[in-house]
Specification:
Layout lengths: L8 H9 L2 H16 L2 E2 L7 H5 L7 E5 L24 H14 L10 H5 L2 E5 L4 E2 L11 H13 L6 E5 L1 H4 L11 E5 L16 H11 L12 H11 L1
Parallel strand pairs: 2-3, 2-5, 5-6
Antiparallel strand pairs: 1-4
Helix pairs in contact: 1-6
């Protein structure tokens, strides 16, 4: 849970990490990792911040809490480790991406290529017990990540916030700066996917907003770490 990320988040999060609630949260999470199986691995809890420095954030996708199956969670919301089967919500995100931009689905669920490009993949709760969804809810993570959203709200650069599902939509109260864009939809889970998520076209809308405000669009086809390395190699 250390906030020593070697990027701009260190200074921005220092005052939050010094607060009493965060000290209690750290103690709780430490105890959980030493008495239960908890995901993601401890060194991946802050991955969303490590991959995407504050000044590089262009898009924020908000999740609720990490996947609670073995080997799935990697600290980026909706993302899983390479070689792990894509969960249903991620399968549906890929379907919506194909519907919107014609980008074919893949079996690779690693989304770190998005994170490298400025897509912050942020869960509201950053840890979870194995097999127990929302088991770490209400312990302090929500206060911490709400503070993060407010910091992003203060960014001088326009950001697109993708709020999928009722839980994420409630976070809109933290986003008050008119320079930003909020796109709302139902959640990509199988329960609500065909109630509007498939046709939401958030990927193309996000890029249109970014380009209209002088920011580079996201290459949504560059999803994984391997994709990112290939793209970087092609531009050297």
């Amino acid at each position: 849970m250390a906030t020593h990320l070697n990027n701009s988040w260190d200074a921005l999060l220092s005052s939050e990490a010094a607060q009493e609630y965060y000290t209690a949260l750290r103690a709780y999470v430490w105890q959980e990792y030493h008495t239960h199986t908890v995901y993601p691995p401890m060194d991946r809890i802050m991955s969303a911040f490590a991959y995407t420095p504050y000044e590089q954030v262009k898009v924020v996708i908000l999740g609720q809490d990490p996947y609670h199956g073995e080997g799935q969670a990697n600290g980026l919301c909706f993302s899983v480790n390479p070689g792990v089967q894509c969960p249903p919500s991620l399968v549906n995100i890929y379907k919506a991406l194909e519907y919107d931009l014609g980008i074919a689905p893949t079996t690779d669920g690693d989304l770190s290529g998005w994170a490298h490009q400025g897509v912050m993949l942020l869960n509201s709760v950053l840890t979870v017990r194995r097999g127990a969804a929302q088991s770490h809810a209400g312990k302090g993570w929500e206060r911490f990540t709400d503070a993060v959203i407010r910091l992003l709200n203060d960014s001088p650069d326009p950001i697109v916030f993708l709020l999928w599902g009722g839980y994420a939509k409630r976070k809109a109260e933290c986003i008050t700066n008119p320079r930003h864009c909020i796109l709302r939809s139902v959640h990509p889970s199988p329960l609500s996917f065909y109630q509007g998520f498939l046709e939401c076209r958030h990927f193309s809308q996000a890029n249109a907003f970014l380009q209209a405000h002088g920011r580079d669009p996201v290459d949504w086809a560059c999803r994984s770490q391997a994709d990112w390395e290939r793209m970087r190699g092609a531009t050297v």
